[in-house]
């Protein structure tokens, strides 16, 4: 019986240049994997849209680039967003929202209101100087309202609004170095809901809740509408005006709206049903 020894195949010598090449290929592969898993806010240039739909309803932080300006896709940006050159940059921490088509804004919880052009706000007439009214809209400066900034108003046909009256108006000029200006007409010079709000009751809420009330799919307003009839005007400055048939209904609507600020939709409906059982019985 003969003993046989197993011979291993000779080991190949590895060149140092080959090792460096392998390491470079591995590093390049890792970089490609990172690029594939980047946030949609970092790859907005790859999508054919000013702001990609994948960025909607996501938490954004100041300084993030969420989109780019495209001439063939015009959009409107609201509070929390700013255009710097051809990029759309976040200026406030919050959640990126799109309540209507081609309009984007950042939903955040803040108490101090900063005017933005085309904001729908609720103001209080404080005084009149010549042909202008002074309006408190809840910001650091008093806004100016021309007596001609109403539908059908003229030098001969002037509206006489008393001090303390509540109006629903639109911000037409917003500049940090100038007093804001408001008007009670739309961009088409029509009233379209703007003007003096008679009777009713006004209360303050968070600015984030006010934006929530302006959405078409607002759960608390839909639930209240099935219980009691009422009118409502929500301002982007954190003021809400309601008008209902009785004081009990006004208390119900006010409490339901304030309580719904941090509630999900399913809990909001249960809360409205529970409150309505006390106030409508």
Automatic annotation (TrEMBL):
CDD domains: KH-I_Rrp40, S1_Rrp40
An example Gene Ontology molecular-function term: RNA binding
Annotated spans, Disordered: 1-51
Compositionally biased residues, Basic and acidic residues: 1-14
Gene Ontology biological process terms from the UniProt entry: CUT catabolic process; exonucleolytic trimming to generate mature 3'-end of 5.8S rRNA from tricistronic rRNA transcript (SSU-rRNA, 5.8S rRNA, LSU-rRNA); nuclear polyadenylation-dependent rRNA catabolic process; poly(A)-dependent snoRNA 3'-end processing; regulation of gene expression; TRAMP-dependent tRNA surveillance pathway; U4 snRNA 3'-end processing
Domain Exosome complex exonuclease Rrp40 N-terminal: 75-112
Transmembrane parts of this sequence: none
Keywords for this protein: Cytoplasm, Exosome, Nucleus, RNA-binding, rRNA processing
Every K Homology domain range: 200-246
SUPFAM superfamilies linked: Eukaryotic type KH-domain (KH-domain type I), Nucleic acid-binding proteins, Ribosomal L27 protein-like
Primary location recorded for the protein, binned into one broad class: cytoplasm
Pfam annotation, one family: Rrp40_N
Keyword rRNA processing found: yes
GO CC, alphabetical: cytoplasmic exosome (RNase complex); nuclear exosome (RNase complex); nucleolus
Biased composition (Acidic residues): 15-36
UniProt-annotated location(s): Cytoplasm; Nucleus, Nucleolus
Family: Belongs to the RRP40 family.
Protein name in UniProt: Ribosomal RNA-processing protein 40
Species this protein is from: Planoprotostelium fungivorum
